[in-house]
Amino acid sequence: MDELLLPGPAIGLAALLDLPTDSIGHGWRLPALWHWMYFLERPSQSDLGPEGHDKHGVPRPPREGLRRMYAGGRVESHRPLVLGEEADSTLEVVDTRERNGRSGWMTIVTTRRTIRQRGEVAVTDEVDIIYREATRLATVSPMEADPVRDEVTGTEIAVDQAYLFRFSALTYNTHRIHYDVDYCRDEEDYPGLVVHGPLQALLMSEEARRHAGSSTVSTGTRFEYRLVSPLTLGQGLVVDAAEQDGDVATRVRDRRGRTTATGRLIRRTPYEA
User: Residue 9: how many CA atoms within 13 Å on its side-chain side?
Assistant: First the structure.
């Protein structure tokens, strides 16, 4: 897939994150994980399954009737992606394995996206997707009025329905758990709308970027993340980052201190133009 990297998607994400947009234009370098706003699959409406996913996309579900969950991934930022220039992306399945988890047997599929620009690899992005049986999950009920506990320190993000809608629009994500609350409760046993796993990963990457300095995060780094527990609207979202053994460890917690995602920014030799 070839794409001219235009400023619009990056401006849209910056606006969602309440970041300045004036400097974003041709020649601007994308921070780590911002490539998720590009190289998007746009299936026909008739190709969507009952949950909203593309029935024929990559990865293809092992069989019908399974629940899909975003489990985590690893992003290698070799060199900066530059706006205003063409880039090429290839997506492939690199691993499929079976495992017995808390909700029963599951299939874990790993995809790898390789993005090249100016003839060189810029980003290598691996994602782990879980397909599991349609069994109930242990979830926490939203606590709209429950304040953030004093010991839950970090940056609180005011995520609401509009926030989820805008992120879904930016990433062309049609999974119904992010916008159809009746589907969440009746079909997948979530107490409310589910906060995207990629959104939590991106917020952790941004927190690590602020902590370490943007020049050390967008290039010459590896960002690993894992989604450990579902997060639904009303539970709150607090993200923090701290130095750990020369790297930057980051996490997302709800207002009660329950960890829902973890990440680690591994520093390497920064790219030099």
Answer: 23
Edge-to-edge strand ranges of the sheet holding 86-101: 2-4, 86-101, 104-117, 120-132, 67-77, 221-227, 259-267, 247-253, 238-244, 155-156
Q: What is the DSSP annotation of 36-90?
A: GGSS-----GGGB-TTSSBTTSSSPPSSTT-EEEEEEEEEEE-S--BTTSEEEEE
How far is Cα of residue 185 from the mean position of the Cα atoms in its chain? 23
From first to last of the 273 residues of the chain, give the pLDDT tens digit: 899 999 999 999 999 999 999 999 999 999 999 999 999 988 888 888 888 877 767 677 767 667 788 899 999 999 999 999 999 999 999 999 988 766 677 889 999 999 999 999 999 999 999 988 776 555 555 554 455 555 678 899 999 999 999 999 999 999 999 999 999 998 888 999 999 999 999 999 999 989 887 554 556 789 999 999 999 999 999 999 999 988 999 999 999 999 999 999 997 655 444
The answer to whether the CB of 110 falls within 8 A of the CB of 127 is: yes
Nearest one of 195, 196, 208, 198 to 239, comparing CA atoms: 208
User: What are 5's two structure tokens?
Assistant: 């990297």
Q: Are 251 and 262 in contact (CB under 8 A)?
A: yes
Tally DSSP H helices, then E strands, for the chain.
4, 10
CA–CA separation, 257 vs 259, rounded Å?
6
Rg (CA), the chain: 18
**CA 62 to CA 140: how far, in whole Å?**
29
What is the rounded end-to-end Cα distance, in angstroms, of the chain?
A: 25
Bridge-based pairing state of the strands 86-101 and 238-244: unpaired
